[in-house]
Write a structure and sequence with these properties.
The structure is a homodimer.
Chain A: H1 3-28, E1 34-39, E2 44-51, E3 56-69, H2 72-78, E4 84-96, E5 103-113, E6 118-127, H3 133-148, H4 154-165, E7 167-168, E8 173-174, E9 178-185, H5 190-215, H6 222-242, H7 244-251, H8 256-259, E10 266-268, H9 280-287
Antiparallel strand pairs in A: 1-2, 2-3, 3-4, 4-5, 5-6, 6-9, 7-8
């Protein structure tokens, strides 16, 4: 393993977790992260941080760097040959208190094997309980700007990939308004791909704190909270049924509490719930589809 | 297909759904089932009935009889050759209002193919939010009595099978106190296996109405409701991550709302929640393990 590369990447991700947690505590103006250090029996470990805050109802920011021999089922799932590996990254899910504030997910990760194989992966995607078209468009334009600094085809490729990935096949709806998703990225080279992953990781705080500030003081009532719980139910469905990362972790003996920190504090299911025609809720559902050109939308 | 057999089995399951719904409405003393009739594009359909009641917070009783050509992915999952099939059955999950009343699941089903292949499957299992040892033991003794009328090895085999099946591998805990589970049953012959499935189906109402009556008026507070929501979260995890029936249905384009009627009205997740030592909640967790000889327990 190229210790030089991987050590600096691990160090960077650990520092990124620190920076993000500090910024989120400031933005929450009340909550403090609780930290759990854990070790993986086969090698490596992580720092799981969870906040139950004033504005962020439940937020998880996980750093891990696991290494050792690749277990056979994991190698099969990843379609790599078994052998020593390193996997490191930062993974975040935030469930806000106010239903007007969107749920967000961010992940940046690096994978390396003894045989010289390596790649970066990650992404950011937004799940508004209520779609605000101008904000969703702004969010995508920010992501496009990040991508465009690295390669003109990154945004269109990774935006489409997010549409495909964050899709509830059994509901025929996207998890939210998407974002970007990339995996097994080796372009243009290790330094360049790392620079892109850093840029994605560092865009998270300004993106989310902006969306938090814009929406955190908007009024809401029981109707909006019930809708929030139903949308969180869909989030649970996506993560437990379709999310490859979650299933890979649960199947291969990952740390359950760190993996499932992505689940909301409270979620509801109501049989065959149909929002009223032309309601805000119905308009949100109509936006939960693949292929919306969010960055190109002409919004006020 | 042996129309004689399958028609009478379909008719029986449809009538069983009627009988069970009638009995549950009486036991709920307030709620009424809403019914949705649905058709499967490939052939057959079902009657989904859902109740939001006074004692049963959310209850689903589904009947279906689907037939036609077996889709390729379904054939692969079932390890059968593609060809005309019939699958019919009744499936129930009840989430009670009072945390002192257990969640229950019952299913009886029949599968048949054009090539002469057939089997019965099903089971009943109990998921108390709070384990009452005497009641769990009583529940298992009733199931044992049902099984013993058909074959002396049915209860031990199907009890162990339920322990294995209703297991959250990522939590290393059983979903509840188990019950019986059987699949691909062809013993002693079609008439005999059908008689057993009928006996299981008909044991459901007396079993659950007894447990409901025993517990429905027990007092509870916010602490018990919060624990109930956390246990329901585990129920969601089992159904979405591990339950083969749920995943098979979602993967092969089953009717989503009928499949997911098993999910609770409200569920909670709290990071790394640990109940107080020696609390009722901690004692419940200690019972959620495989291999407890419930029917043989010496309880008052």
């Amino acid at each position: 393993m190229s210790a030089l590369h991987s050590e600096s990447i691990v160090r960077y991700f650990r520092a990124l977790q620190d920076d993000i947690c500090r910024a989120l505590e400031a933005a929450d103006a009340g909550g403090r992260f609780r930290e759990d250090l854990w070790e993986r029996p086969g090698g490596g470990g992580g720092r799981t941080r969870v906040l139950e805050g004033r504005r962020i109802g439940k937020g998880g920011v996980n750093f891990s760097a696991v290494e050792g021999a690749m277990p056979e089922p994991a190698a099969r799932a990843l379609e790599v040959s078994p052998g020593p590996f390193l996997a490191t990254g930062v993974s975040i899910v935030l469930h806000p208190v106010n239903p007007r504030v969107p749920i967000i997910h961010m992940n940046v990760r690096y994978f390396e094997m003894d045989n010289g194989l390596w790649w970066f992966g990650g992404g950011i995607d937004l799940t508004p309980h209520y779609v605000d078209v101008a904000q969703a468009s702004w969010f995508h334009r920010q992501l496009k700007a990040v991508c465009d600094r690295h390669h003109p085809n990154f945004y269109p490729r990774f935006k489409d990939w997010a549409d495909e990935y964050f899709f509830l096949k059994h509901r025929q709806e996207t998890r939210g308004v998407g974002g970007i998703f990339f995996d097994r990225l080796r372009e243009p080279d290790r330094e360049g791909a790392f620079a892109f992953a850093r840029d994605v990781g560092e865009s998270f705080v300004p993106l989310y704190t902006h969306l938090l500030r814009e929406n955190q003081d908007l009024p809401y009532g029981e109707r909006h909270e019930q809708w929030q719980r139903l949308r969180r139910g869909r989030y649970v469905e996506f993560n437990l049924v379709w999310d490859k990362g979650t299933r890979f972790g649960l199947d291969t003996g990952g740390r359950t509490e760190s993996i499932l920190m992505s689940l909301p504090p409270l979620a509801a299911w109501q049989y065959d719930y149909q929002p009223e025609a032309d309601s805000e809720e119905a308009r949100t559902l109509a936006w939960l589809r693949k292929g919306v050109d969010w960055a190109g939308l002409d919004t006020p």
